[in-house]
Please model this.
Amino acid sequence: MSETTAFLTPKPEPTPNLLARLANNPVLRKELRGIMRGQRSFWLLTGYVTVLSAFIFLLYITFSVETGFAQADPQFRQTVGKSVFGGVVLIELILISFIAPALTAGAITSEREHQTFDLLRTTLLSARALVFGKLTTALTYLLLLMLSALPIQSLAFLLGGVGMAELLISGLLLFVTALFFAALGLFFSSLLRRTLASTVSTYAAIVISYIALGFALFVAISVSGIATNDQVAELIMTVSLWVMICTNPLLAAIVSEVILIEDQSLWYTTSMSGALNLPLPSPWIPFTLLYFAAAIVLILLSIHFVRRPSRI
Amino acid sequence: MTTVVEIQNLSKRFGRRAAVDNISLSIEQGEIFGLVGPNGAGKTTTMRMLVTLLQPDKGEIHVGGHSVQKNPRAVRRIIGYMPDSFGVYGDMTTQEYLDFFGACYQIEPAKRAALIDDLLELVELSHRRNDMVDTLSTGLKQRLGLARVLIHDPEVLVLDEPASGLDPRARVEIRELLREIARLGKTILFSSHILADVAQLCTRVAILENGQLAAVGSLEQLNASLIPHRTLQIGLLKTIDPQQARLTLATLPGIVDARPLEGLQDSTRIAFEADFDGDDLALHALLQEMLARGLPLVQLSEDTQTLEEVFLRATKGIVS
Model:
């Protein structure tokens, strides 16, 4: 090998802290700028708030027609408050489950399709910075959506019946759901070459996972049905049902709220395991841990796929 | 001269097809090195391996002393790449576009602003700094692409068909820009189907065909090895019979073959193209002999061998 000229020796790279790296992530800044400049974000936000407002309006009308709020006792108003809060959270969970992957399923594939991916890969931008930039952009926008729902949710606080525990748990569930579904979209976007294939695969994975869980429950019921021991059968049923609840954001939210109301417990319940009297963790705990861990795995895989050299 | 790019025994297969087959070449600092070849010859694949986008199956590439396979990040610091077709971020202004890539190359914000000003001036896009990138024409986008590859002040530029799809004026502008960039001391490797551009710009040329290196060298070296004779254009007044003129020319010292040149004939003259074997002294002697024999000579010029002829002689016309 011929002599190396000194000026071709690259300077050592600085190592700023994590927060500084995120704040200075060029992809994050570019994507946020782009997302807020476009019309899509405005219409998405408007649609999101409209759906939530429509739901609350209907709920409010229903209750006021049935009872008339002026005469409603505090207990009833608290129930209404809980319903408003719970309804908003459930609708948010549904919307975020669909919006989050839509924000990330084209994150990497669109760069390939628009022929900008190679330009990025030949810079000093690492695969990790690219993936985190895209993910953080999606999460930032989703956070904006969640914050935009706060004024609507605040109606529940006016009516009462909603405490800090519900607020924190619902926030955590929403965040982890958003994180997981965004990571899922990013995973397929880094794995596949086309946005259409990535989007279809992401939503198919979501649907299949719900169907698969339902099928697993059906299998569990069948297995428990042929178990000779009643206790074993009940154990199989209870565990299968609990797994299904803890892996579904809507069910996890609903059942966690039920446990909070009926068992007055944030952390566990024994009343749902029937005669077994088995202490089961409140679904929000395993749900959060599982979805968070799964999101981390998906993010790491995304980085791996983005980092790999091109095939052509 | 320092070798900046060294490619040794480079090979790459896609399935059963050898896209690049045992190529070895080196590029010296400050050179403008041309890569030519028919479609599928392996030019783009070679470039993509050089800029760390593809892993070679065999062989080694070193840029500025750094191995592309072992230390790709160090290579990316000193290389700027412009693919043959690339997208732009339409939702950004020209300035934001360069600022983004400056950030991707970890250039400090304070330095970026001044750098962008200089680059926009170099590529003559200062007046379009606040315009959205997707409002630029193809030629202006190409200029913006050149500004982008220079943002981190790389030592080596790798440009895949930089003049592709441009109108003649835009091509001339790109060519002038590349000359200007070369004057800044950069080493440039570029591929092109437009042989005239390659011939005008390049200090050396490599001709690829079917993944293999068919020829490499300066235009003069390639001429000497592939086209052994000099080509002369001879114009005579129509006062002489064309057949007789041809026979006379063929007997002149140094003339290997003479043939009529239809394109340069007119009402007053006949034109011939002749293969000449000799140096300038022999050429002077030829001129004297022609005049001594009374040939009605009105033109004697040498046809500078085009890269097109070199290319046609170096390749067999095999297209992958």
In short: The radius of gyration of chain A is 24 Å. Residues 27-307 of chain A form one domain.
